[in-house]
Amino acid sequence: MRTLRMIAVGALLHAKQLSRSPFEIATALIVPVVQATLAVYLFRAGGEPGRLLEAAVGAGLMGIWSSVLFGSGGAIQNQRWQGTLEMIMLAPRPPALVVLPITLATALTGTYAMLATLAWGRLLYGIPLSFARPLAFAVAVPGCIIGLGMFGLLLASTFVLLRNANALANTLEYPIWLVSGMLVPITALPGWTGPIAAVLPTTWGARAVREAATGSGPVWPSLGVCLAISLACLALGAIMMTHVERRARAAATLALA
């Protein structure tokens, strides 16, 4: 219970901190709206106006992923700039439990992306928000967010040793959401992308949310696979976080920005 309370309080603290950043606020306000607009026109141009709700949901998932990716990549970098990274690594808790609230906070702030894209699509383009399974959708979205937050810990653990983690984050944004089928069906991609998509929690989280919105398949198996892979990412991220922390201390590169 104390560990869960620490994670919850830490996530709330970092979410408040993100809400004080002009850059984070501007990004959260603008990017989801742009992505929703592009998705709607993409589906209309493709002659599939009946899938506009799926387009809005996919754009929302893209916004959540962007928030998690850049939040996880910038989490360590921001702590370096603020001079608090050493205190985080010296805390009497495993490093993973100290960094996990940061990645969960970025995922929580990404919920605005889903709400913004759905509202934007409804108000501007008249997309009917008729979810096939409203209750399942209300469960799938938080489940996907929690899963992405745990996946963010694995990403953050790889950024401890990097002086400029944002450069790596920039290269991962579009390939991951493309391979995960957030907007473009996986069946439309080359066959070699299938195994990559199968091991990503983003793929199964996006599938669960899409199935809940459109009723195209069973929601709970996809959500269960998403959470199972995310738990594996959490365990692997904890191991990597401990390893790279010790390596960074030995190489005296922990505080380098």
Using brief descriptors, characterize the structure shown.
257 residues; 11 helices; mainly alpha
Structure description:
It contains eleven helices and no strands. The chain has 257 residues and is an all-alpha fold. Helix 1 (2-18) crosses helix 5 (95-109), helix 3 runs parallel beside helix 7 (134-158) and helix 7 runs antiparallel to helix 10 (201-214). The radius of gyration is 18 Å and the shape is globular. The protein starts with a helix and ends in a 6-residue tail after the last helix.
Secondary-structure map:
Blueprint: H1 2-18, H2 22-45, H3 52-82, H4 85-90, H5 95-109, H6 111-125, H7 134-158, H8 165-179, H9 193-198, H10 201-214, H11 219-251
Helix pairs in contact: 1-5, 2-3, 2-6, 3-5, 3-6, 3-7, 3-8, 3-10, 5-7, 7-10, 7-11, 10-11
Topology order in helix (H) and strand (E) letters: HHHHHHHHHHH
Structural category: mainly alpha
User: How helical, in percent, are the residues?
Assistant: over 70%
**How many E strands?**
0
Broad shape: globular
Counting DSSP H or I runs of 4 or more residues, the number of helices is 11
Q: Biggest sheet: strands, sense, closure?
A: none
Low-confidence stretches: none
Give the end-to-end Cα distance, rounded to a whole number of Å: 35 Å
Strand content: under 5%
What average pLDDT do the residues reach?
79
Q: Specify Rg, calculated over alpha carbons.
A: 18 Å
Tell me briefly what this model is:
The protein is mainly α. It has helices at 2-18, 22-45, 52-82, 85-90, 95-109, 111-125, 134-158, 165-179, 193-198, 201-214, 219-251.
